[in-house]
What we know:
This protein has helices at about 5-20, 30-45, 50-70, 75-85, 90-105, 110-115, 130-175, 190-195, 200-210, 220-230, 240-250, 280-309; strands spanning about 255-260, 265-270.
Amino acid sequence: MRKSTSTALGLTLGFVLDRIFADPRRWHPVAGFGTAAAALEKTTYADDRRAGVVHQVIAVGSVVGIGALAGRAGGRVVVTALATWTALGGRSLVRAGHAMADRLDAGDLTGARELLPSLCGRDPSVLDADGLTRAALESIAENTSDATVAPLLWGAVAGVPGLLGYRAVNTLDAMIGYRNSRYERFGWAAARTDDLANLAPARLTGALTIALAPLVGGSPSGAMRAWRRDAAKHPSPNAGVVEASMAGALGIGLGGRTQYRHGVELRPTLGDGPAPTSVDLRRAVRMSAIVQVGALVVTGAVAAIRYRR
Length: 309
């Protein structure tokens, strides 16, 4: 079987596995990587950017090396499929989004606050229903790229090492890529690497949101306008793209005062419309699911073109 065919087939099978089984509740490889990275940090940590670079190189380099060895083993389709399943989190994202909307509709703010940490790192204790809705919707938009589009694109471009390496980069950013007293310097490399790794995936996600917006009753022109006008206002070069395009597609407004556990950030306004409701959250979840399928089609074509060359 040609490498182009085996890679595209492996990505597709891994996507299907994610849709059927979602993330395993126990013994997840990403959780194992997080445990190993935390243990490594006890040795590598210093309040210095150079220490953070060393930590990043060791942690991510080890995973890329494992991916390279696995990719050279027999059964390339199976290995790619398992690596894809390991790297993806799209089904869990959609499921959490629906669960959040259900709890908000039921007026169960306690349950919604308990669920929010599975979506993002904001402090749920200070959020009311509107704040929980916005936090969940912005997380759905951003994680559509992080949890599905980016792993698929890196898998199409770099195979198993790309899949596993991207997931390691993204996990490290979630662990140490914060601007607080402990990680502002040590986590700098993790945050910048994650920004670079998501430049292309975020823009593919935005483009797919524009193209597929009519399938959820959304506006392609609104998505494009919000992206062009508002994305650059966001402190993240990637989250701004996906959040702005989602806001424009749904005709809502995102941004504002954002409470994280490490402090408060004032985010710019994205989009023109009113604050999102649980109805908008459900539309965003449907948009995410559709964009994920679109990303599979695009990245399968990318794999075919790349490896044929």
